[in-house]
């Protein structure tokens, strides 16, 4: 077994020599074998280790006795030891989190504290090849995508250091045999026999079948995991380069140009969506799965120009014409209304400015849809600058009859997210005169004296 571990570490370019490690030890066969192995090589490799144990207080006296067993094991070998009794049942009641998630959070929090206290760079955990098989199968079964399907990595960043798992190429039986050979007498967690946990069901039902088909199945799954991890790392890097050309982002929103995005190869499209979700979610919800990503593709490939999706934790995905917006905290557009009594400027919430002045022959009134002349003798003052309302209609210059603002926005392909904050200029009785940047009404100013005209200009 020792040779297998040496070869595995060497294949990852990792040496134990001179390292400082926290070792997570439950007292079971896997973690006890890891602690013993690292202890046996510590002198030769100038390795500094500290054993860390967390009693989750699920099993009362039984779990406390396991903590004392690990303490005594370390004392006999002069291994520094730290332990904590974490009241996980109480934490579950306070947070409403599942037992497994609650236990993990408290456990890793203690690991982090001890690494800082002892100035340790690595946290070594006893996950093995059978754990890898179970993890990959569980993730595939629940619909995980991307790198998550690769399972447990040999090394990953953890706070200011790293987590390493030196036993991922070994089977559970390898570790049981190691414990027996060295007479370690590990403790057994009775909860590992309960089929209420999905991992235990995979362990007791699925894994024995796979082992019967191929006793070395754990090695093949580990190879699959490493290939998936390296392939995904390369494709993710390539995706980042491509996505920078098709998206714009703020802290709480990412917008992609759909046409350019769909020109990317499909493996990059999928990773592109994952990158967006990883960017917006501080902590990705466990309920988020490949099904959600598939729903995004269904929406952006749909011939209908608009649509929206509600994702976990308040994320909203909105498709509007050629754009798709991902908003973690969708900004509700607040309606506004300003009154313009004469020359001056109005700063609008969406960032634009309406500038008003009396008309003079020196002003160019032919500035298209960003400027407008108003016959104030006909309209009176004040002019109103507001957001749209239900049923809004306007008469368009050069057309007979009126048209709904909703239809104008659709025809001009204005994204849904922008329609509720678009400025509308009306007279003081509500007749719509101008949609800045879009359309002018049939309001006439020909032949009106210069002194009775007001010049409006819209700057974005």
From TrEMBL:
CDD domains: TilS_N (cd01992). It holds the Pfam family ATP_bind_3. It is found in: Cytoplasm. The gene is tilS. The N-terminal region contains the highly conserved SGGXDS motif, predicted to be a P-loop motif involved in ATP binding. This is tRNA(Ile)-lysidine synthase. It catalyses: cytidine(34) in tRNA(Ile2) + L-lysine + ATP = lysidine(34) in tRNA(Ile2) + AMP + diphosphate + H(+). Its EC number is 6.3.4.19. Transmembrane segments: none annotated. Its main location: cytoplasm. It comes from the Bacteria. The keyword tRNA processing applies. ATP binds at residues 26-31. Residues 383-455 form the Lysidine-tRNA(Ile) synthetase C-terminal domain. The keyword Nucleotide-binding applies.
């Amino acid at each position: 077994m020792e040779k297998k571990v040496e070869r595995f570490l060497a294949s990852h370019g990792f040496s134990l020599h001179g390292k400082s490690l926290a070792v997570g030890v439950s007292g079971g066969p896997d973690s006890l074998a890891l602690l013993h192995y690292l202890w046996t090589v510590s002198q030769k490799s100038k390795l500094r280790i500290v054993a860390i144990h967390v009693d989750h207080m699920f099993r009362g006296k039984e779990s406390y006795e396991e903590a004392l067993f690990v303490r005594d094991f370390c004392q006999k070998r002069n291994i520094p030891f730290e332990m904590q009794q974490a009241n996980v049942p109480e934490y579950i009641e306070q947070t409403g989190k599942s037992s497994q998630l609650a236990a993990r959070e408290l456990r890793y929090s203690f690991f982090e504290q001890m690494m800082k206290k002892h100035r340790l760079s690595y946290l070594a955990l006893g996950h093995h090849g059978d754990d890898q098989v179970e993890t990959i199968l569980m993730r595939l079964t629940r619909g995980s995508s991307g790198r998550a399907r690769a399972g447990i990595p040999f090394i990953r960043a953890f706070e200011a250091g790293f987590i390493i798992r030196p036993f991922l190429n070994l089977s559970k039986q390898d570790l049981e045999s190691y414990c027996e050979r060295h007479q370690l007498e590990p403790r057994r967690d009775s909860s590992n026999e309960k089929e209420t946990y999905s991992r235990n069901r995979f362990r007791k039902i699925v894994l024995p079948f796979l082992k019967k088909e191929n006793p070395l199945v754990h090695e093949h799954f580990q190879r699959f995991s490493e290939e998936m991890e390296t392939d995904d790392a390369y494709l993710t890097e390539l995706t980042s380069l491509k996505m920078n050309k098709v998206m714009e982002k703020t802290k709480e929103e990412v917008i992609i140009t759909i046409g350019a995005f769909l020109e990317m190869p499909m493996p990059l499209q999928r990773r592109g969506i994952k990158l967006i979700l990883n960017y917006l979610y501080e902590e990705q919800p466990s309920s988020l799965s490949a099904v959600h990503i598939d729903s995004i593709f269904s929406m952006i490939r749909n011939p209908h120009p608009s649509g929206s999706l509600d994702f976990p934790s308040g994320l909203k995905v909105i498709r509007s014409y050629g754009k798709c917006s991902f908003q973690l905290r969708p900004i509700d557009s607040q309606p506004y209304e300003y009154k313009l009594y004469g020359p001056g400027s109005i700063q609008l919430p969406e960032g634009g400015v309406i500038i008003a002045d009396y008309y003079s022959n020196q002003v160019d009134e032919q500035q298209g849809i960003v400027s407008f002349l108003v016959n104030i003798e006909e309209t009176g003052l004040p002019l109103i600058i507001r957001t749209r309302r239900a049923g809004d209609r306007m008469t368009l210059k050069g057309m007979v009859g009126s048209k709904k603002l909703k239809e104008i926005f659709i025809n001009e392909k204005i994204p849904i997210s922008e329609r509720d904050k678009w400025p509308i200029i009306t007279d003081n009785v509500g007749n719509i005169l101008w949609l800045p940047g879009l359309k002018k009404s049939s309001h006439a100013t020909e032949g009106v004296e210069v002194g009775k005209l007001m010049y409006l200009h819209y700057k974005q």
